[in-house]
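chain below, 357 aa
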Amino acid sequence: MDTNQNDLFNTTQARWEAVLQKDPAADEQFFFAVKSTGIFCRPTCKSRLPNQQNVLFFDTFLEAEAAGFRPCKRCQPKQPDFPQENAKRMIKACEMMEQAEKCPTLQELADYVGLSPFYFQRLFRETVGVTPKQYFIQKRSERIRAQLKQNETVTDAIFNAGYGSSAQFYDQATEILGMKPSQYQNGGKGISMMVTILPCYLGWVLIAATAKGVSLIEFADDPHKLENLLKNVFPAAKYTDDNPMFSTWVKETLAFLEQPGIGLSLPLDIQGTAFQQRVWMALREVHSGTRVSYSEVARRIGQPKAARAVAQACAANHLAVAIPCHRVVRENGDLGGYRWGVDRKQKLLERESENLR
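prediction:
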């Protein structure tokens, strides 16, 4: 009793003051029980205040129940703490980080939304699927891509995106962009990519690769849409389809589309956040003909409450079938969304099922 990971409420007196003030920062940090009623509550419970001498404190509701106390029907201490209000707080924190030039400290974020640092960190990860620092890095990566296309110099882009120094950015540049910043800024100038666009039973497929491996597998109904996709992203890159190694990768991909049971193990050139790459790695372990839910993928990567973030990572996937996000469905079995259309998702799953017969 009276021990807690949150230093703000690690004494009996501090906890009692929080109960007197009905401090929202104390919710989920501890629970108080009233000996005269046999009931335990949240610190913010709106019931009449008990006498201090009748109050006991517990770190968790499980401890309160083990001591023989019943949960309060008014504040429902066993239920998640005010999910709608907390969702608003997490959105507010995300907006703060999206506008910040440097990553706010955990204390600054917690103070901004009116929670304790310990509870805020836990709640943010459960709600968003990543830590606050990982979220900031992800958003800053998006900003640097936009800034490189808007600014005349790489240095201006780096500092406008919120990096403290050029060295800090260059240490991560290849992982974020897949190439040198100057090449990205100049539309892929100096980059050589192997590309082909071919018909398949799903419409048209674009397969693109660098020397490291396949970097894009995209579907569309019209080949011109796929051509425009490349031109918009890297208009100055050099494209070729005359490469024996690349020809082998293309043949493997087309064969897999027709017969998914043969498997697909291509070398991949993947760019994404740390969280996205964890999700994509987990997806590559889902076998053909198998379906998993977003929640199941979240559990497999050790973040059981990050189903929404898993869905976002699936939507950010640019490597159709090589990273088989089409095998991820909703908990109730519904197909959910798919970057290249739900009809294609259905056809891919049906083709995989047929190959198992």
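Residues 1-6 have pLDDT under 50 and may be disordered. The chain has four domains: 7-71, 82-184, 192-262, 274-356.
thats it, cya
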